[in-house]
Design goal:
The complex is a heterodimer of chains A (270) and B (392).
Chain A lengths: L2 H7 L3 E4 L4 E6 L13 H4 L3 E6 L20 H14 L5 E6 L1 H12 L4 E7 L17 H13 L1 H6 L16 H4 L7 H12 L4 H4 L6 E8 L5 H10 L4 E8 L3 H4 L1 H14 L2
Parallel strand pairs in A: 2-3, 2-4, 4-5, 5-6, 6-7
Antiparallel strand pairs in A: 1-3
Helix pairs in contact in A: 1-3, 3-4, 5-8
Chain B lengths: L4 H7 L4 E5 L5 E4 L1 H7 L3 H4 L11 H18 L1 E10 L5 E12 L5 E10 L1 H34 L12 E7 L9 E7 L5 E8 L3 H17 L5 H15 L8 E10 L6 E8 L5 E3 L5 E3 L18 E6 L4 E5 L1 H4 L11 H10 L6 H14 L8 E7 L11
Antiparallel strand pairs in B: 1-2, 1-5, 3-4, 4-5, 6-15, 7-8, 8-9, 9-10, 10-13, 11-12, 11-14, 14-15
Helix pairs in contact in B: 6-7
The chains are: A alpha/beta (270), B alpha+beta (392).
Amino acid sequence: MAPVDILQRNNVVVTGNPDGRTIVLAHGFGCDQNMWRLTVPALVPEHRVVLFDYVGSGRSDLSAFDEARYSSLDGYADDVAEICTALDLTDAVFAGHSVSSMIGVLAAQKAPERISALVMVGPSPRYIDDGDYFGGFSADDIDELLASLEANYLGWSTAMAPVIMGTPDQPELGDELTQSFCATDPAMARVFARTTFLSDSRKDLLTVQVPTLILESAQDVIAPRQVGAYVHAAVAGSTLVTLDATGHCPHLSAPEATNQAITAFLATLS
Amino acid sequence: MTLDPFEAAYDGAPSGQLTTELDGRIVLANSTLLSWLGRPRDAVVGKLRFADLLSIGGKLYHETHFAPLLQLQGEVSGVALELRRSDGTRMPVLVSSAVQYDDSGVPALIRTTVFDAQLRRAYEEELLRERRAAEAARSRLQAALAVLQQSLLPATLPTVPGIAVAAAYHTASIDDLGGDFYDVFAIDDERWGFFLGDVSGKGPAAAAVTSLARYSLRAAALHDPAAALSTLNALLHERYIDGDPRYCTAVFGTLRPDPATGQVAVRFASGGHPPPLLIRADGSSEFLQSTDGTLIGILPDSQFPLTDVTLTPGDLLLLYTDGLTEARVGGRRELYGPEAVQELAAQYAGLSPAELIRALSEVLTSLGPRPTDDTALLAFGPPGPSGRQRGA
């Protein structure tokens, strides 16, 4: 694919300070790059910020969806590596929410010259309990999630495209941009859900050799504290910050604390 | 205890009502919701978060979709979730939430309404089952149609000594059978037969006529082309005289290569078909339409006059169905048209039939998401002597 196609395919948006260090913000399973809406303003003065949508999410090119490619985290990591190459990034920081934390680990393996630090927001290398490992979910739980995606199959695809209220202070995030976020194609969302919640990236964590910040919410059913501790122990030299936040999206529910932790981490990078 | 009318309306509403802090902690719940949950008020209010009321799948869905949407846009409506009742059963609900702001516009609380969706969910599940069944049936049908369509076309074109041949078939819809057909085959040691045609209509009925036309024309190939089309005409007319008239257009012809000169003598007849396009090696071109017969199968005694033309090395003869000339340009009303075909084809003078077919196929692909009609393309000619020929 030509670079321009990759940028269109993943709806890549580049903003911020062109002279600053690049930070790539990757959304997780669920919505799209709008999830970083409250993070971007804190980063743009000093950093070049790259946002994108995974294929099948947001305003990505849905015709590029390939079930086989996106049935493993490797496929998503290939996309990230391709985006980094298309933008010719070097020494970028990759910040991933949720499953994107693990995609970032894989992308850093694929393109070590391009990604030199990781930020993980609510990471979990494996959601399903496995012997002594506590992931927080049983295999049945995950089946139930897949079923509840199914239950929204009818409503979600049509009625659920949300009519968003414009944000007066950020008019650029108006209707058109945001109308379809979270209203992913149900068939593609199922593939992403299965790939996400059935993945096991525990071994990959051991390969991380770059400075890594782990952010967790104090209360998060998807990535509980035990999982944050596991990731912290597995990634050598990582920093773990527990945010006074509830839910799986601290960058939305506690944006100030999240932004502060990220900018403090960025300041420690040479 | 006497409730004021507003409190009574809230508490006894036919929907569940819930107020939570921004982090989901429940500060108020009405009796309807508590009775659905089967839990006493003091086990819920001040104790649980909204997500705690949900099934595990619902919790995950809440975290990955519902909560972020609510945080981003201040309200979410009509999301299907399941409540977990105290007896372990699940209750399908539809949930709408809105953030309430304080006087200075800062988010303060979340108000949530929960609708009983048991009947609706049962209906949706029925729809979903039907939809899956319909999708499965559709893909089985598509597979069957693809096999059937393939059976109406030659698996491969034969190698004809002294003549290069190329063909293509573009399907307009994978949900229907097209009625276009073509073939190239040996008649005897000296002659080769070819035909290309278009049956009226689409679908299985058209496919039956296509099959009949193909095999009749092959069987009648020993006669001259006009007689072969007359045979098909009589057959179609007789068979479809009642009720459901079926007809087709076709060009049928023979090729006689002359190894000594490299020339090919072409003799063909046409029954109401768009005229073949002759592209001479020198770049000149013309539609061979002087002696066009009537549609095949309409009248009992149609005549199909013969046309003779000699191809010299580098010349091409292009046969096509109206899917090519009537393709919509850019999805508009405007048609691609014979002039555009001629203009493009003239650029392939002296090149191989395969290159011409490839170029026309690209045009068809580029003209829009899908052409509206099926298109069959067949081109042949004795290879040119010059270096312009770039192989088959």
